[in-house]
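Regression check, uridine-5'-diphosphate-glucuronic acid case 276:
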Amino acid sequence: MATKSSNGEQQTSSKPPPLPSPLRSSKYFQANTRILVTGGAGFIDSHLVDKLMENEKDEVIVVDNYFTGSKDNLRKWIDHPRFELIRHDITLPLFVEVDKIYHLACPASPIFYKYNPVKTIKTNVIGTLNMLGLAKRVGARILLTSTSEVYGDPLTHPQPETYWGNVNPIGVRSCYDEGNRVAETLMYDYHRQHGIEIRIARIFNTYGPRMNIDDGRVVSNFIAEALRGEPLTVQKPGSQTRTAFVMSRTWLTALFVSWRGRTLVRLISGTQVNLQ
Ligand SMILES: O=C(O)[C@H]1O[C@H](OP(=O)(O)OP(=O)(O)OC[C@H]2O[C@@H](n3ccc(=O)[nH]c3=O)[C@H](O)[C@@H]2O)[C@H](O)[C@@H](O)[C@@H]1O
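Current build output:
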């Protein structure tokens, strides 16, 4: 029964409390893990999001500034109750509550990362610092996707994880090579100094659906030229070799294994192909 206090305000009520939202008892609101994917609208990143969304117990938050990524890659998840898409540039701090961070944000094709090299290095350095600060604050585990380019112009083939590379610090690709090297250093320093649980996956040449046709890397260039009926262009010296890993469930499984396993892994296909 409702009672009135001396000043006339209602202090108690027999009215039952409001029912929780019916959504609270739906399976979507019992997330085990909330996962942040930076750069999630990109080529590799959006495949990762598809895979993460398969786990009905997880919520996925994507942040992207759409410099090279596209909302189209995530179209099927927009409006899904376990999915959230935020337009955000990670060179600015980000405050979200998450359990795991997949930090993939950075243009990876030379055409795009050389377009604004200062922005590229800011993304690698300040962006990674911000994501590590976030991981530190919320106690999240963080995986950085790095690149085979941390080896620069390697003097050893193939490159084992123990190889430190041969990198030009002042070249036109340095914003990406050195940027990723600093990002890796930050990861290890936050691990050593702050105890953050880290993983680093160095990704070698990967191609597949959702790659930009004008991406500028060798496999997509060859495919675009073949589709146009043009001869394939092999740049000088012509003796270069590359591995080419197709985006697939196998690729994604390898990334997940790296998440569970060792701190530093390379995602590389077994076969070196001579471009000629
Ligand atoms: O300069 C220093 O002397 C210190 O810099 C950092 O400490 P701090 O600047 O307090 O920053 P963190 O908490 O590590 O965060 C790093 C970045 O992440 C950002 N951040 C933090 C938390 C968060 O949720 N989101 C987010 O974007 C912060 O704004 C900051 O720019 C290091 O963690 C310290 O070890 C170091 O001593």
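Comparison notes: The pocket of uridine-5'-diphosphate-glucuronic acid is lined by residues 93-95, 129-130, 133-134, 136-137, 193-194 (CB under 6 Å). Residues 1-8 have pLDDT under 50 and may be disordered. No diff flagged against the previous build.
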